[in-house]
# Entry
Amino acid sequence: MENQKDLKPYRIGEYARYMGVTPDFLKHYEQFGLITPSVAENGYRYYPFRESSRLLDCLALRGYGTPLKEMRGMLLEDDADAFRQKLDERAEALRRQIAFNQAVVKEHEVLSRWMTRMEGREEDWHVVELPALLFLPHTNLHTFLDDPRIYEVLSGWTPYMPMVKSCLRITPSDAGPAYCWGLGVREDFAQAYTLPVSSVVEKLPARKAFVLDYCGWQVSPGESPLDKHYERFLSHMEALRLRPAGAIYLTVLFHTHDADGTRRDHGFMAAPVE
# Structure
């Protein structure tokens, strides 16, 4: 048996240095009962050498992302089967986080290529085959839509931004365009990441579309840009003798601002063509 008298106690700063952590780290783990120093009459904390093994176990669990409130039970109460099950669950959560991070990086690479292509250009257009899209309506510009089917799935979509994007549906009519803000996402991404879908979600099939990319469209203070964006889009289609064969979708990529506060919009608009 180890001789407790031979186990040297260390002051908090010294012990933290030997363990590669900070004094605040030790105090935090102490609050959760994961390490137990002795406190001298003068108020100094002393950490016995034997606590190092427990602390290393805690650091290993931290690598899994295990919450502090779960560590004590895993280290002091769980048998091997329960311990492994919890590690399996943490590993699965890490796999999901890795997949999400990879999707964000891939989306950034697409955005970076778009920004490179648009350097020095305010607009660019092309006719392409667009992939299938899902659109979740959310607001009518002034208020949130009061449809419970939206909120059954909304919280399952928002964590996946920026792959899920802010999207505006514009429905042309003789009385003027009708606007509906919502969220848009490629159907293949939604299926791969099992985004929830209810009957309110609109499914747009893969389609041939006229796409207008815009980079830095100016929005003056107090100005509503939607009509202006809509008119610019239609003017480009008319110049090419094209007409939208359905609703127009404006996808927001990002906004920037000039030094004087002028907003600049960046994104693209798309409408199916026959």
User: Anything to note?
Assistant: The helical segments are 12-19, 23-31, 51-63, 68-76, 80-117, 148-157, 187-192, 225-239. The chain has a mean pLDDT of 92.
